Input
Amino acid sequence: MPGHKISPRQAATLDGFWRGLFLPWKGALALARPGQDEDWADLGCGPGFFTAPLARQARTVHALDLNPDMAAMAAAKAQRLGLGNVRAQACGEVALPLPDAAVHGVLMVFVAHEFRQPAESLAEVARVLRPGGRALVVEFGGGALSFGPPAHHRITPDQLLAWAEPAGLAPGELRRWTRRLLGLPYLKLWAQVLLKP
Ligand SMILES: C[S@@+](CC[C@H](N)C(=O)[O-])C[C@H]1O[C@@H](n2cnc3c(N)ncnc32)[C@H](O)[C@@H]1O
Output
């Protein structure tokens, strides 16, 4: 059952050196295609692992997290890195502290499987996106050998689309990655672009 929340005690892992080495974070961000003249939200930003590279490519990044400790860590990281275009703050389980049509893009990396009301959260994402905007959802794929949350917490692209399409978000590109060590898959990811007409 999705909806399980990661603890802020795991923040160091979320922003760790090994993650930078093994996650295809550059490829994921390339799918999002943030532009220098665009405002983005990093929803479920955690300690800011994706916020920082996103902020180097976009005009403004709203780093939002349900957990105020995570939002504070993302803010501190942005300050440490001199990224003055990051505005970090806590958000609600569903409600986002942004006006309608506020952003060109919303990044959601490893957060959709933590949503307790996924259909409502995606409707809220659709509300804050400008027409023509896009969202990128990145999640762990299946497979017992793959890093990530327990199998019963994971979601599939089909599940995501069943929540997103009634919210008015249309499917865009879907990409999958598998990382192997000695032939064994240790990391399976998928990324789904969602388009706001
Ligand atoms: C697994 S972490 C991923 C953090 C970050 N995106 C990354 O990949 O480094 C998931 C984050 O989403 C946050 N979160 C969970 N449910 C949320 C919700 N409904 N709205 C906003 N943030 C949420 C958690 O507090 C946590 O910081």
